Amino acid sequence: MTQTLDLSALARTREDGACEMELAVDGMSCGGCIAKIEGTLNRMPGVVAARVNFTNRRLSVAWTREVVSASDIVTAIERLGYGAHPFVARVAEGEDAAEAKSLLRCLAVAGFAAMNIMLLSVSVWSGNVTDITPETRDFFHWLSALIALPAAAYAGRPFFKSAWSALRVASVNMDVPISLGVILALGMSVVETVNHAEHAYFDSAVMLLFFLLCGRYLDRAMRKKTRAVAGNLAALRADTACKLTDCGCMNEVPASTLHAGDRILVRPGDRVAADGIIEEGASDLDESLVTGETLRREARAGEPVYAGSINFSSVLTVRVTAAGEDTLLDDIERLLDKAVKSKSRIVALADRAARLYAPVVHTTAALTLAGWLIAGASLHDAVITAIAVLIITCPCALALAVPAVQVVTAGRLFRAGVLLNSGDAIERLAEVDTVVFDKTGTLTLPEPRVVDAGAIPADILAGAARLAKSSRHPLALALAREARDAQPVPGATEIQGQGVSAVLDGVEARFGSPAFCGVALPRDIPAGASAIAFRHGTREAVFLVQQSLRADAVAVAKALATRGLRLRILSGDRAEAVEPIANALGITDWRAGMRPADKVASLEALRTQGHRVLMVGDGLNDAPALAAAHVSLSPVTAAELSQAHADAVFMGAALAPVVDAVTASVRARRLMRQNLMLAVIYNAVAVPVAIAGLVTPLIAALAMSGSSMLVTLNALRLRLPARRGSGTMAAAERAEPARLRTT
Amino acid sequence: MNVLVYLVPAALGLGLVGLVAFLWSLKSGQYEDLDGAALRILRDDDLKDEGTRS
């Protein structure tokens, strides 16, 4: 049987007729890799252009269809020792990139305008105390207006748009006072310039925009980076499916290109790529990713199979019923919608501050106007003072206070292996008092491990691993992982559903089910473990393969408990499988056999008791619970849907990022509060000065940049190593528990 | 103050040149792969390639 990897569905056709594709490349580490990949591909006949983007580890390649195929290119890269994974950019990623680019353009324009207007303003300020002529001052003011008005109209669009959309639905966000402040400052400055006044506020308005755009851009750049990494990970994990064509050939195609009605062949050890109905064959299915249940289900012809389950024993032919975006059980989808809606109740700290802030600022300005009028000032003076109040209270520091901390924290978590899906997840993580874990794939490693490898002689283990390399059976894969450098035995033959046999060192060796090897099954197999046997001549061994705990799960549970967090396990698995894990971790509060709806109900119950829950889970069955929890984390091995609904995704085999995420967030929240306090103190000092009518443009400019710098520098303190032992998990373990609770 | 007649336009002009240069570099994708650019500048095998290709 010949098999080809058919990637044509992922290639785009360019205007000049060439095909084009993006690949996520795995394993690039230095400049030499760029040269090697580009050099090799550019020398390949038929390749029009190949360009590596080292920042996001992607390769974009164009070729002519007639000469080479996409799979040739992938093979060529793989032969160089890199993993190449065809990649379809998600819509959200493209939107983020475009937005970051447009913010950078706005930032450039605002920066140019701010510099030039400052140049003119400093001349006016120094001229005002020396000998500037009114004509020159007017000329400088008009020149400032000429630069400031178009620049603000261009660079202020992100704020004006957001403020307008908030006002249209009769609500207020932080952009409303910003837009109002900028527009009024510019308007008043034009009026003052027409009246030949000494002061104009063009510089304040444009500098305000510049500082705010800095904050916005940093925020976008962080999100763009996270999305690029998440996109690559998705491509790396993307499954392929073996599609049966009408002529009876088999084609290896990316799972994302399957359509309802396609027939796919699922070999033992394969992950089912799409939901479907079994047409031929019967097999055991491991549906732990779908339901959390580790006991295998027997499925026969006519029964449904779900994407994500693993075929264990024999070949199945499946007719696809749903593929791509809608590979999901309807009720999981429905639960998700509900849970996502319930999450939108939570208002981010910055928005809460904005809701309080905007009315206070506007009332203060109005009162200033009324006060000065009552005190007998002219309308002109009263209006100028009121606008000065608005400008000086413009939430420059406030708008930077929270995003600056978010960006620094996100960068820190990024290095710790945690990718944030949403910036406000940090605030919610900091409020958590209960942590709920899923078991399968979260507390345990996503792949089963040989648990008794240490008790078996090394040469037997090595021999078994060599035979195991010839099989795709999940148990064989687990054994092959134990000895990565084992070479497969030439001439090994696999008997489907039974095992592998080969001649090893002149003696027949068998690896497979205990019956196939003629090995007696030990009586005391622990619940949830599977046995696989090996016979080499007269020597024999039985390996127990089991879902094993992540190496640092116990330490993580302890670290979280010392932080004063309540721990709970909600698993879809059987009680016999959950109990030993709960005991090992010292978690007394556990439930087994939970369906997705039960998990959501359990989280709702915790919520009504006033708890803030962090849900850590990976399976499809966890997706609704992840969306319903106050905040949620998912390992990268999780089902794609679960990842999409988690607030953050963590990488690697360790569970420690969960602790890191919580500790870093607690620290971040403290800094956010400090920053907000700084902004309030700044206002408490500046507003009376403004109300008294003493604000000159110089004071406004100094006060604004000063407060922005202060909150940004304060946020950067997060990059300093943690002094109070709250930075990393290791530090958290060293620190005494009592002190940790107070931080 | 006649000096302003050419100093101010010169200052603005220089600023505009900087802005246009930045916008051009942004548009031509020079910020797409900052890490890669840092490594590519150290490569010299492309010099030889250019010689043979042209």
Summarize the model shown.
The complex is a heterodimer of chains A (743) and B (54). Chain A has 743 residues and is an alpha+beta fold.
Question: If you had to describe this structure to a student in words, what would you say it looks like?
Answer:
The complex is a heterodimer of chains A (about 750) and B (about 55). With about 750 residues, chain A is an alpha+beta fold. Among the domains of chain A are: about 1-85, 2-Layer Sandwich (Alpha-Beta Plaits); about 90-235, Four Helix Bundle (Hemerythrin (Met), subunit A), CATH 1.20.120; about 415-445 and about 550-665, 3-Layer(aba) Sandwich (Rossmann fold), CATH 3.40.50; about 450-545, Calcium-transporting ATPase, cytoplasmic domain N, CATH 3.40.1110.10. A seven-stranded mixed sheet of chain A has the order 1-8-7-9-15-10-13, with no helix packed on it. In chain A, a hairpin with a 4-residue loop joins strand 4 and strand 5 (about 60-65). The radius of gyration of chain A is 32 Å and the shape is elongated. Chain B has about 55 residues and is mostly helical. Chain B has one domain (about 5-55). Helix content of chain B is about 75%, strand content about 0%. Chain B has helices spanning about 5-25, 35-40, 45-54. Chain B is elongated and about 55 Å long. The mean pLDDT of chain B is about 80. Classes of the chains: A alpha+beta (about 750), B mainly alpha (about 55).
